[in-house]
Specification:
By secondary structure, the chain is an alpha/beta fold. Helix content is 52%, strand content 15%.
């Protein structure tokens, strides 16, 4: 059986999933998160401000990293910036992560004058690559900058599976993509089913669940798109709905079969909610860099509907 090098779709998915799971991400990275952060206050994502501070380099066509700058409020008052830098390259690239992290740190602190917590999430395949420190010394002047780093390849699979935090499924998705780098389409479909089951075991809000499903479904693409269609049909079967019926049709059909006016009303309300969520997701995907064709494919929207959101 022919095996294929796994094809990751990294950047937009990481940007999107961090926004959809950021509270869980903080809990995952910091066990004391509930005591540190005021998670009841909304997060503010400063992607545009970050791009102003760090314009993309024209020559950096091979750039394979994602950056998020998020304003987080602390318990007891005050605010702090969580700077999350995600390396999605398959190797250490130019070996300049430590320097870039330091440059980000001093420019952000200089611009906003607030404490910064920096986190580098590494999704590369090099076990020996563990950047966490930038040092510079010259004629008695010494600089030492350490930052948090999280190496996905170094994680324990069983620990991820037993962790009830929804973000553990995101990490498990990336982890399995690395260790199953040459999986066949059939093996990849089995992996995605496993990840789906892991997701369903955990308690989370519906919007979070949808975001994690999109991440595990699209993080690695199938060579044969027919296998992807089959995977989604099998998921629909697990959910107990017709494989030929979308969410809108399913809710209306359910109300009709049960013959309850109240159920019909609830279905109509839920359909409106789903439509609103769909357009909200499309807007976020546009802001995260998804192209129109991919958004239409994922959310079953027309190009005209997506273009109106720009």
């Amino acid at each position: 059986m022919v095996k294929y090098k796994l094809r990751r779709v990294d950047d937009p998915l990481w940007k999107s999933i961090l926004e959809q799971t950021f509270a869980d991400f903080l809990r995952f990275m910091f066990p004391e998160a509930e005591l540190l952060f005021d998670l009841n206050k909304p997060f503010e994502y400063l992607d545009k401000e970050f791009e102003t501070l760090f314009p993309p380099e024209k020559s950096n066509k091979g750039k394979r990293f994602v950056d998020k700058l998020v304003k987080v409020y602390m318990k007891g008052g005050g605010e702090q910036f969580i700077f999350c830098h995600i390396e999605v390259q398959s190797n250490k690239g130019n070996d300049d992560l430590e320097k870039r992290m330091f440059e980000y740190y001093y420019k952000i602190t200089d611009r906003y004058q607030v404490p910064v917590c920096a986190i580098a999430i590494l999704t590369d395949e090099n076990k020996q690559y563990n950047p966490k420190l930038y040092e510079q010394s010259f004629l008695g002047t010494t600089l030492r900058y350490e930052f948090n780093y999280y190496k996905i390849l170094s994680q324990n699979e069983e620990d991820l599976r037993s962790n009830p935090n929804p973000f553990a499924v995101v990490v498990l998705t990336a982890f399995l993509a690395i260790i199953n780098n040459n999986a066949t389409d059939q093996e990849l479909k089995d992996i995605k089913h496993d990840l789906y089951d892991q997701m369903m075991k955990r308690d989370m809000e519906k919007t979070t669940r949808q975001g994690i499903y999109d991440f595990l479904a699209y993080y690695v693409s199938f060579e044969d798109q027919e296998i992807f269609i089959k995977f989604e049909q099998e998921i629909e079967t697990k959910l107990g709905r017709s494989t030929t019926m979308g969410t809108r049709e399913y809710l209306l059909d359910k109300a009709k079969r049960e013959g309850q006016e109240q159920e019909r009303g609830l279905a109509a309300v839920r359909i409106k909610q789903l439509e609103a969520e769909k357009f909200e997701s499309a807007t976020k995907m546009l802001n995260s860099g998804f192209d129109v064709a991919m958004i239409c494919d994922i959310l079953s929207l027309t190009p005209e509907q997506v273009e109106k959101l720009k």
